[in-house]
Amino acid sequence: MDLYAVVFYAFAFITLAAGAIVVFSRNIVHAAFALLFAFFGVAGLYVLLMADFLAITQLLIYVGGILVLVLFGVMLTSNTIDVQMKTSTIQTFPAVLIVAALAGTLIGIFWSTDWKTTTDPPIQATAPKIGEMMLTSYLLPFEIASVVLLVALVGAAMIARREKKA
Known about the structure:
By secondary structure, the chain is an all-alpha fold.
């Protein structure tokens, strides 16, 4: 097993273990911090796939923005440290059946597929090419998308600030 495979399995384990902690943790702060490690693991997998733009975007958007927002929301809200999530109906048996059927289908597809292998061309960085395309051939759609997002942001702010009439 080469170093690439070891690093891949390490990132995959970190991502899966952190995801399991997010799902099964009863403490919302622990779940939020485990989500941080899950995001870092996914970013590491993107780096191994040579998708440098996606890895940087994962770190900037998810870790830098969304997760920090979630953590501040959790920490500034009172009585959220030990949330008891209980439902009157626990449907473990149907969930196990669905997961087993899905896992069996995926394993069957994996073993019955004739995987083709090719020699890989030299890998090039993707971020410079994406940046060049966004500022040349896709400039108009990029600007239209930014204006639409700005209008949505202003509309959301207006709806949030609207005073309730008696």
